[in-house]
Amino acid sequence: MAVFIRRLEEQDEVAPFDCGDERLNNYLRRYAWANQQKSSIGVTFVAIDEGAPRTVIGYFTLATASLPRDAFPKEYVRGLPPYDLPLLARLAVDRRFSGKGLGHALISEAFKIALRVADDVGCRCIVTDAYRDKIDWYARYGFVPLEGAAESGLQRMFLDIRTVRLAVKSSP
Amino acid sequence: MTVKTKQTKKQPQSTKGPRKSKFQADLAPTEDRIVRGLKQELQLSSNTDFLSDALALFRWAVGERRRGHHIFSETETGERKELVFPRLERVAPGVALPRVEISWTPRELESLADLASREPAHPTETLIRAVRG
To answer: What is the chain B residue with the closest CA to A43?
Structure first.
């Protein structure tokens, strides 16, 4: 199976996508294109099998999240400009393709994009809102849970962009 | 099929030019058919000519995206379709990500500030593998 990752296009087939989570299915089917093209509140990148070049088999959505400077702890605010950071908003794999390393390929691409954003505009970290049962999966990449999230909701997680840069330097 | 651009390694001293390199690729049957079809369509007789033209086109596309230009095809009626090719996007100068508002609890912000002010953690093996590709 040869898979490539690119931006979502209008003609892509999203209806058959099923990751087992209706909220993530629904986002791709109903909102991803509109959010990307019309509202500009998230860019969705999709994994496509070369054998079926219009069928989405996995996706992730990126945006930049603003950090409320006024609400930031005062001891850290000095010298801090209005600040945005890359938000990995969603990541899902069609269950017919689970266990094949597709999630890893998707998050790898997300890291590369985040690094480019960091190079272009500067940012200190990547954040994601993880489902509770996926915290361990993100932790394998070095994401650290932020304290203070509501117990029942999503867990916001943090990954220092400098750690990602160190990973690049560690590569042979 | 194997695409080869075969060159002589040694040339006489009097006609010595820039050294040429050999390129070899193993193609899947489908790709092989595509190459043969394109060669026929473009009336290219050799793999070297094919590779040379493909290289020129790819080089142009990389240059355009590196300058931040977008590449479109346009129909006679003016309908446009943008070429989006993942590898080309890697040389594009910027990624324009839209901005969204998300809510933060005071404790989350404090935790974020604390983590961001520390020395960066060592990357995990999984992260290293992720950025390696």
So the answer is: B97
How sure is the predictor about B83, in pLDDT bands with cuts at 50, 70 and 90? confident
Q: Which residues of A touch B93 (CB under 8 A)?
A: 120
* Interchain contact, B127 vs A40, CB within 8 Å: no
Count structural domains, chain B.
1
Biggest alpha carbon–alpha carbon distance for chain A? 54
Rounded distance between C-alpha atoms, residue A21 and residue A28, angstroms: 11
pLDDT in tens, A72-116: 666 666 655 556 788 999 999 999 999 999 999 999 999 998 888
The CATH T-level fold of domain A3-170 is Aminopeptidase (3.40.630)
Question: What ipTM does the predicted assembly reach?
Answer: 0.87
Distance CA B18, CA B7 (A): 12
Interface size, chain A vs chain B, as Cβ–Cβ contacts under 8 Å: 156
φ/ψ of A45, rounded to 5, equals -110, 135
B109 touches chain A (CB under 8 A): yes
Of A75, A108, A149, Cβ closest to residue B130: A108
Which residue range is the domain that position B63 belongs to? 2-6+21-96
Q: Where are the domains of chain A?
A: 3-170
